[in-house]
């Protein structure tokens, strides 16, 4: 059985109290197998017994010295994926057929998974997980993620002795760092070499595209997002979206906001920044300018709106409204970057049609 050791205070107390029936892994993994080039939250190593371990660190926002080790003794064959991004990674490795359950089936875009929709169980999400259904699926691994703390499902999975692993692509700030987690997934399914080759191809494509516009004299000013309850959240300068804008040859208007977490600004400041921008990206759920005008009437006289330079990343939506930008887009930042270059420097890519972005009409 694959074993996960989660070294946190709460888990240690649970082990002492006998709350967790699984054995802990006391081996030292000190022989490098794969050291990520961009990702900061995982490494693949082996121990003295030649057992491979995926070492995970700080897989959710605010985590401090949280470490985990997953013993990848045998490739996982029956997987429950709690994020659509994990589905995209498995599909990219030709392992979508190992998925037996997902969280939010209606939000999944994956063609491979949708072709097997009748065979895939929806196990729920957040605090509404159907653990009875998970038990019936008999998975050998559940792929979890945390947002600002441990996943609510973790405690019950531990109680049921169902193996799980956290994948921390969500908290990586580098676009390529997010995608590099496909190598960890490759180790899980016994396809690490294939995953490394795939990731290297993505990284090479990304870096070639970035270099192609590095010397562009024109750098359009870019504003992102839309207000929510009269508060406008914007990525900080070290956020992956800000990095994508810079790598695509754009000038992010909030680039002086330091840090990696999103920051809130009031509508007055947002209006001033939007008035300085040439392009408006990712304006909520809008698919037309009319919808956007109804959502944000105050911003209809800003330069991006009046010039029609408003683009949203919701070109590919599932029947349930799931956005493929957050599914396969996280796996393919090279395609996201290519889209942004097309928006910022149309002449650079000829007749290329964006994969994720649409121009609001």
The CATH level-2 architecture of the largest domain is identified as 3-Layer(aba) Sandwich
Structural class call reads alpha/beta
Task: Please count the helical segments.
Answer: 14
How large is the share of residues in beta strands?
Answer: 15-25%
Total count of domains: 2
Radius of gyration: 21 Å
Fill in the keyword field for this structure.
18 strands, 2 domains, globular, single chain, Rossmann fold, 5-stranded antiparallel beta sheet, disordered N terminus, 361 residues
Overview of this structure, please?
With 361 residues, this protein is α/β, with parallel strands linked by helices. 31% of the residues lie in helices and 17% in strands. It has two domains: 200 residues, Nitrogenase molybdenum iron protein domain (Rossmann fold), CATH 3.40.50.1980; 146 residues, 3-Layer(aba) Sandwich (Rossmann fold). It has 14 helices and 18 strands. Strands 1-5-4-3-2 form a five-stranded antiparallel beta sheet. The radius of gyration is 21 Å and the shape is globular. The N terminus is likely disordered.
Short description:
The chain has 361 residues and is α/β, with parallel strands linked by helices.
